[in-house]
Amino acid sequence: MIKCKHLCMMLLLALCTLTAQAQEAELIRNGDFELTPRVEKGANATTAWDSRKPLVVVHVDPVSTDNPCYAVICCDTIYNQGFDGIPVVEGTKYDFSVCLRNLPALKEEDRVEGCKLLIIQLVDEQRQPLAEATIRAKGNQWQQYHAVFTAHGSCAKAQLAIVGVGCQKIAIDKVSMKKHQ
């Protein structure tokens, strides 16, 4: 009888631990643009990402030597499907973080001072916004940015959208999103 109680207690503790881990789970797949066929069969640096234009992945001046790949966008939108869709529940808050740096234009006359505006959205299957936040990236050195936003709708297979506003290029890496604790 005592062994049964201990077994039940251990099972309950294991379930509580799994539930806590699931709540802290990462919702973005391949947020660091580092997937390769060696890591996952058939994968590459753009796995789980989508865009109307080809997604450019670069290896020059990365966030760190442990994380050499990052994406570069201009006035485009990139989408991440998460792990077979991102489950979004109305009223739920989400913590978003990303590392960004502005990239200067090659021609001096094309260089723009200031900051790059990014619109961060959770979108449904028709790409209609369910939640939105904005980030203004400043400077040409890697910096981490954070945003918290609340969903005003629900969708079982939502996507994350990162919208680049304006023609200035920006480097994007370490994209992460979790349910707010």
Automatic annotation (TrEMBL):
Tell me the leader sequence span: 1-22
Q: Mind listing the UniProt keywords for this protein, alphabetically?
A: Signal
Is Signal among the key words of this record?
yes
Signal as a keyword?
A: yes
- This chain's protein is named Uncharacterized protein
